[in-house]
């Protein structure tokens, strides 16, 4: 120690005092901001499992290693940061005295060896990460880059600081060796030893190296203290908490069930929710829970989520990374206003900083930075282009961005710090649906059909058992053939698609036949089934979900009355129903043993109750598409593959499979929405499948385990076949593969054949096709059969295709209510629906069941029945629901906000004529719905809090009476479908201006893999 080293040491200490102060001010800002979020007490415990899971996840880097090279490199940097901090603090002493080391362990050989590993590990690790970032830099046009949109300045800063830190560890130690301060054995300094040989013997040099090492850390503290949005730096601290507090313990993370809608720490139920008091989803940044704020803070901008997102990869404006970053930037920008006590009501008027007279406290507001006040006036979700054009601030999240999500969970699965994107997206959708009534017009039809008919297609409930009449064996129906669960092992939950959709019905029949062959005692609910509500929930209509769930749970309670919990078994073919029944119904009091049909069939094969016989060797080539709600959301990956193995077909995996499987595009209620931007996701997936199958002379099939996937993939294959690709490729359910194998073995149903002879002719024709599966494309054959039996009003899937004619672009069932048929073109109509779609307004007591009059009548499928927006008998509490701003008529556009995508009329061939009439999409204001202006709809969104809403309020109300007419006109425009045609898929709509979140230049061309 000498005067110079003392001076160096003193400089280091003084600078560090400033840096630590700035750093802790940043910590305080972050903690204070996180505390602005809603309470959520569900994540605190159990302490030990959460802690141990967090330790395993960070020490084992279990998420990071999914990108292998990054995994080990990041692990080295992380350990270098945690343990290397001891070496960094040691530099305080070393600047004063080059001989300084930690007492007790600082001079031990073990510690010197560890220090050696830390130094070299940090340098090697960060160099690898730096190279990877450059190799993936989006500067090269057309390059796939998960870093598109990430803040590079922050990343570069962190990388260089880490590199200097690592070099500092090495150089200080090498300096000590070269100057004789330390003489460690070579095994403790295998690399530093050689560096030391190149250095002079100088104690001063040791102090200088130590000061550089110290100051590099200080710069880091100073900068991140000032930049609280630099998640790439802050995740070093916040990631531990984020992982500890993740929603679900174990591998599910925030997958499986959707997060219940919560406000103020309590779960909202429609019986007692009050929009005056409760936050319905997230309409403002402070509506997110503290865990949401922690998520936003923790995002490292690594872009793993983005790289897996089907929306981003097909050219949609949604990137889960950019969405989280936008929420983060907005949150921290608005935080000063919120921390000062600012608060706005739903109309955008200041209610937080007000004087005794109730007027805004201008003096208090003036103390808030203008930027924060402006940020507070930003709307959370809106049409970016329109708002900017109108001179308003762009919304935080663009409308198209929000509704592009398929809830596939790929982002959550990949995120190394367990950010819960899907929860946040659903919460924002909830607000849009329940409060703002702003949602894609196609969903209006979906909500109405679910409300009125209990299924997305608006079919009659009695038609749920049509398929039962189309099979050769007995299928016991609860209430018809059985009045209790006695003697049965499984309830076979058929699901809406499985009951109504022709392609999905093949799966239903195959599973029923297999259960029959294996002598499994099961029954079905028949008419008693109602949609599980999965689509409603993922679309944000939480109360409609709750209503449907309660209805089903009542049925289950009746069926399972007196049956022990462990015997309440349900087998499901739909991955969405599977997820809802097994993961979401427990949230509303329904607890059952739910298995997916692939799991049960696999067990039956293992138990030799089903014995498939292999096809001629090599005659069948299969690739398997993992349904997101079976795979990622529920980790069922093996059962379907084992079944394919049992069928002895040759399975070739697609590049994206298992936990990285690409969504088919149907989840998150996207099944019912049009896809106007970029490449269609189902086409992207089918392209991958066709590439995988290649060309060959064998029978080629794409197998899956979900009716939604099956419909989407079939549409995609059909589209490609129309352009000459994928000739002969067929989309099947795994159950059909097994059934084919079992039939090859000659197995016959174990139960009695039907006694009733009155089988409809068409049903018999269908069965004939089913019994000759290998001969012809099983998907198409039934559609060319005789007219469909007993389907009133709506054309079932067969009706989508003119008999003997070319298949229409839109497939599947025609939908009542003007909703989009899956895979079909957009239904006409306006965005949103005045009434939120829920059958019961929150806060209202449960209403009497909706009037059933329309349900059974064939005429129910006509426009006349679908036009009324609200069925009679529903109890509607005006407050909080529906009318944005109290000025917008239901279904009408907001003034000055024309919907860009002109509603395209369904092609005549796509559905039965009666169902798609434009009138269905011009929902009249529900009779008797009293529109209460209070607290509704911050339509303008741009007004700074504190300022009184001025002139815009008046114009907003003007167009309201005219809006329905305008929408009807638009609906009637004879515009061709814009997206269902294959050519639209080949060239993604690059001209579509990215909104809101901005896909930066250099982003991968949409749709390019
Ligand atoms: S859930 Fe899927 S579609 Fe939605 S943001 Fe995540 S990866 Fe994208
Ligand atoms: S959300 Fe997660 S995966 Fe996506 S960029 Fe942020 S840290 Fe990475």
Task: Write a structural description.
By secondary structure, the protein is mainly α. Helix content is 41%, strand content 4%. The strands form four sheets. It has a four-stranded parallel β-sheet with strand order 6-5-7-8. A four-stranded parallel β-sheet has the order 10-9-11-12, sandwiched between helices. Strands 1-2 form a two-stranded antiparallel ribbon. Helix 22 (502-517) packs across helix 30 (734-744). The longest helix has 32 residues, at 3-34. One iron/sulfur cluster is lined by residues 308-311, 318, 320, 405-411, 421-422.
Structural class: mainly alpha
- Estimate the helix proportion, in percent: 40-55%
* Tally of alpha and pi helices: 36
How is the biggest beta sheet arranged?
A: 4 strands, parallel
**Ions and ligands:** iron/sulfur cluster
* C-alpha Rg (nearest Å): 31 Å
Poorly predicted ranges (pLDDT <50, ≥5 residues)?
Answer: 755-812, 823-1009
Distance between the termini: 61 Å
Please tell me what the overall shape is: globular
Q: Going across the major beta sheet, what is the strand order?
A: 6-5-7-8
């Amino acid at each position: 120690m000498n005067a110079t080293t003392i001076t160096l040491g003193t400089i280091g200490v003084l600078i560090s005092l400033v840096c630590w102060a700035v750093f802790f001010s940043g910590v305080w800002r972050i903690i204070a901001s996180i505390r602005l979020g809603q309470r959520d007490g569900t994540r605190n415990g159990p302490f030990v499992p959460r802690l141990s899971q967090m330790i395993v996840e960070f020490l084992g880097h279990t998420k990071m290693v999914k990108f292998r090279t990054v995994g080990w490199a990041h692990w080295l940097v992380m350990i270098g940061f945690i343990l290397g901090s001891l070496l960094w603090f040691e530099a305080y002493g070393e600047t004063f005295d080059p001989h300084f080391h930690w007492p007790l362990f600082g001079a031990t050989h073990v510690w010197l060896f560890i220090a050696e590993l830390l130094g070299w590990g940090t340098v090697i690790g960060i160099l690898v990460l730096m190279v990877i970032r450059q190799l993936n830099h989006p500067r090269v046009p057309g390059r796939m880059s998960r870093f598109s949109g990430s803040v590079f300045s922050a990343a570069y800063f962190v990388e260089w600081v880490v590199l200097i830190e690592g070099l500092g560890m090495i150089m200080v130690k090498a300096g000590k060796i070269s100057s004789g301060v330390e003489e460690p054995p070579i095994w403790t300094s295998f690399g530093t030893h050689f560096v030391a040989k190149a250095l002079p013997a100088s104690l001063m040099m040791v102090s200088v190296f130590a000061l550089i090492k110290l100051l590099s850390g200080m710069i880091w503290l100073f900068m991140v203290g000032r930049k609280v949005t630099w998640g790439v730096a802050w995740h070093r601290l916040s990631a531990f908490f984020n992982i500890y507090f993740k929603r679900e313990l174990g591998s599910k993370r925030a997958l499986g069930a959707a997060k219940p809608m919560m406000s103020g720490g309590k779960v909202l139920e429609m019986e007692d929710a009050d929009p005056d008091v409760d936050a319905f989803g997230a309409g403002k940044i402070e509506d997110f829970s503290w865990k949401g704020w922690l998520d936003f803070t923790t995002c490292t901008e690594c872009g793993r989520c983005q790289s897996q997102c089907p929306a981003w990869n097909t050219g949609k404006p949604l990137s889960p990374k950019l969405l989280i970053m936008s929420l983060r930037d907005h949150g921290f920008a608005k935080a000063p206003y919120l921390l000062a006590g600012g608060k706005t009501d739903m109309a955008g008027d200041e209610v937080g900083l007000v004087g005794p007279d109730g007027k805004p406290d201008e003096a208090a507001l003036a103390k808030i930075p203008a930027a924060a006040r402006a940020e507070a006036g930003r709307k959370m979700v809106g049409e970016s282009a329109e708002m900017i054009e109108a001179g308003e601030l762009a919304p935080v999240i663009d409308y198209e961005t929000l509704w592009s999500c398929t809830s596939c969970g790929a982002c959550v699965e990949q995120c190394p710090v367990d950010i819960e994107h899907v929860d946040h997206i659903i919460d924002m959708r909830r607000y849009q649906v329940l409060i703002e009534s702003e949602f894609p017009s196609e969903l209006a039809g979906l909500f109405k059909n679910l409300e009125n008919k209990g299924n997305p297609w608006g079919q009659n409930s009695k038609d749920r058992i049509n398929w039962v009449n189309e099979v050769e064996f007995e299928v016991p129906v609860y209430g018809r053939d059985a009045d209790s669960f006695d003697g049965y092992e499984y309830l076979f939950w058929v699901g809406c698609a499985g009951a109504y959709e022709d392609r999905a019905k093949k799966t239903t029949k195959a599973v029923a036949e297999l259960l029959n062959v294996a002598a499994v005692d099961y029954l079905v609910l028949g008419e008693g089934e109602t949609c599980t509500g999965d689509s409603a929930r993922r679309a944000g209509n939480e109360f409609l979900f709750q209503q449907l769930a309660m209805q089903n749970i009542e049925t289950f309670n009746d069926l399972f009355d007196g049956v022990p919990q462990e015997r309440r078994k349900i087998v499901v073919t739909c991955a969405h129903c599977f997820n809802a029944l097994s993961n979401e119904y427990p949230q509303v009091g329904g607890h059952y043993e739910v298995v997916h049909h692939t799991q049960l069939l696999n067990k039956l094969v293992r138990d030799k109750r089903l014995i498939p016989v292999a096809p001629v060797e090599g005659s069948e080539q299969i690739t398997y598409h993992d349904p997101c709600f079976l795979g990622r959301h529920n980790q069922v990956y093996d059962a379907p593959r084992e079944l394919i193995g049992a069928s002895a077909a040759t399975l070739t995996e697609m590049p994206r499979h298992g936990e990285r499987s690409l969504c088919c595009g149907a989840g998150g209620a996207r099944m019912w929405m049009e896809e106007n931007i970029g490449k269609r996701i189902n086409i992207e997936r089918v392209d991958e499948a066709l590439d995988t199958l290649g060309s060959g002379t064998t029978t080629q099939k794409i197998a899956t385990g979900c009716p939604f996937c099956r419909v989407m993939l079939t549409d995609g294959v059909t589209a490609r076949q129309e352009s000459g690709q994928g000739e002969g490729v067929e989309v099947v359910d795994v159950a059909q593969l097994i059934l084919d194998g079992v039939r090859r073995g000659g197995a016959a149903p174990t139960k009695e054949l039907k006694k009733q002879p009155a089988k409809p002719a068409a049903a018999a024709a269908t069965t004939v096709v089913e019994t000759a599966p290998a001969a012809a494309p099983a998907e198409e054959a039934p559609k060319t059969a005789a007219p469909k039996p007993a389907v009133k009003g709506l054309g079932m899937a067969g009706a989508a295709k003119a008999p003997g004619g070319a298949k229409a672009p839109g497939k599947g069932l025609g939908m009542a209510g003007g909703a989009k048929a899956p895979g079909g073109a957009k239904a006409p109509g306006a965005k949103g629906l005045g009434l939120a779609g829920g059958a019961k307004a929150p806060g209202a007591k449960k209403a009497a069941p909706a009037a059933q009059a329309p349900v059974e009548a064939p005429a129910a499928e006509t426009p006349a029945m679908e036009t009324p927006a609200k069925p009679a008998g529903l109890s509607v509490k005006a407050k909080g629901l529906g009318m944005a701003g109290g000025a917008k008529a239901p279904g009408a556009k907001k003034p000055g906000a024309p919907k860009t995508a002109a509603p395209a009329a369904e092609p005549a061939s796509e559905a039965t004529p009666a169902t798609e009439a434009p009138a269905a999409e011009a929902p009249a204001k529900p009779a008797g719905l009293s529109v209460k202006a209070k607290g509704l709809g911050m339509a303008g969104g741009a007004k700074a809090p504190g300022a009184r809403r001025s002139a815009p309020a008046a114009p907003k109300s003007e167009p309201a009476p005219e809006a329905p007419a305008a929408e009807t006109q638009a609906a009637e425009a004879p515009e061709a479908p814009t997206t269902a045609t294959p050519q639209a898929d080949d060239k993604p709509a690059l001209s579509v201006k990215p909104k809101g979140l901005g896909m930066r230049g250099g982003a991968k061309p949409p749709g390019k893999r």
